[in-house]
Write a structure and sequence with these properties.
56% helix; two-stranded antiparallel ribbon; alpha/beta; Rossmann fold
Length: 381
């Protein structure tokens, strides 16, 4: 729960005018509660509204975390890309944030950030999230960063999510191996279960395997994107079941293919899609997602590649101007890409793309040696 000290700080920050507007103690309490909720919500992560088959998984992770107990719990959620690990971690994080107040941090895309910006950048974000201190700006090497993290989190219980880890040293350099305070909870998502084997780590990383969706849940998720309903219409029921059988219960593929077929009513189009999917090996996830790329128009493809190569987690303003200068129709193209579940534009105006589509876009760019369409001077901005 939010500590009394935190509430006192919020009350102190209220202006005299605000207090005077409150006609009773009840009004003042309501105003304080509202302010607390607003501040906590700034740490909440955005989660898709199409949550299917998550109840049992949420219950399992909450059981492993056992938030009411003492000690330290570190849970490793592992599974293939596109299976929903990050979504599950965000749900749990959103549920638990109010219990930890400001002492929580969600580090997105550890693998990609470590590769492109370095682990120091992640250390800075973690310290900034939890300590809200200027010390986060003064880290110039990994060793100094881990020392500062030890000093910051060794005397408080914290909630940390390390999303998409691919090396054990990322865990070690971000949370340490022996410095966590009783009550701390750590979630790690990864495609590789072996990253949890860290020499000298004081805490056991308890594994939780994400499995693909059941046939029932797959049909429901697909139907929401293809029909905006929980079930297919009778005439497309059998074809829908055949299509989901080719996706292997992978949520990212179900969403993408369902979105591609949205509003398509001709059965021959559905049959053509089914044949394409059947020709792609069951293990080739990117091959199945490429079908959605192949259905795009030329400028939509180029914008998709540009985002995959350069603009994930970047503000969309400059790219949009550049695409317009290149003769594209970026607003329409982005609308198509959003509707087909290949990208999102977040509240802060930044592009987001699932890592499966990111990998697909970069693989296509390498194959075509396109260099991904925009001029270097635009990318630099």
């Amino acid at each position: 729960m939010v500590g009394q000290r935190a509430i006192n700080r919020i009350c102190y920050q209220f202006t005299i005018e605000t207090v005077q507007l409150c006609r009773s103690d009840g009004d003042l309490i309501e105003a304080v509660v509202f302010e607390v909720v607003v501040r906590l919500k700034t740490r909440q992560r955005k989660v898709t509204r199409d949550l299917v088959g998550m109840e049992d998984r949420i219950a399992a992770i909450n059981g492993l975390l056992d938030i009411q107990s003492g000690g330290v719990r570190v849970i490793g959620i592992y599974g293939m890309g596109g299976i929903g690990k990050s979504t599950l971690a965000k749900i749990i994080y959103n549920q638990l944030c109010p219990r930890f107040g400001k002492n929580c941090s969600f580090l997105d895309g550890v693998r990609e950030t470590a590769k492109t910006k370095g682990l120091v950048k992640l250390q800075e974000q973690l310290l900034s999230d939890i300590s809200n201190s200027r010390v986060a700006r003064n880290i110039d090497n990994i060793d100094y960063g881990i020392n500062m993290i030890r000093e910051t989190i060794c005397n408080k219980k914290v909630l940390v999510v390390l999303d998409d880890v691919d090396e054990g040293n990322q865990i070690e350099y971000l949370i340490g191996i022996d410095s966590l305070y009783s009550g701390t909870r750590i979630l790690v998502t990864t495609r590789d279960k072996s990253v949890s084997k860290i020499r000298g780590l004081k805490y056991e990383i308890v594994p939780y395997e994400m499995e693909v969706l059941s046939d029932k849940d797959s049909l429901q998720l697909f139907s929401r994107h293809a029909f905006d309903a929980d079930f297919p219409p009778d005439k497309l029921y059998d074809t829908s079941k055949d299509i989901i059988s080719t996706t292997g219960g992978l949520p990212s593929a179900l969403q993408a293919i369902g979105s591609l077929l949205f509003l398509q009513k001709e059965e021959k189009i559905w049959q053509e899609m089914l044949e394409k999917l059947r020709k792609t090996p069951s293990s080739d996830v990117l091959g199945k997602l490429r079908i959605t790329y192949d259905a795009l128009e030329m400028d939509q493809r180029q914008i998709f590649l540009d985002i995959a190569c350069f603009f994930i987690d970047k503000d969309k303003t400059n790219p949009v101007f550049a695409w317009k200068d290149s003769g594209f129709s970026p607003e329409y193209a982005m609308d198509v890409l959003i509707n087909r579940c290949t990208i999102k534009v977040l509240d802060e105006n930044k592009f987001w793309m699932h890592d499966q589509f990111r990998d697909l876009g970069r693989a296509i760019a390498n194959q075509e040696r396109s260099g991904c369409g925009l001029r270097d001077d635009i990318i630099a901005n």
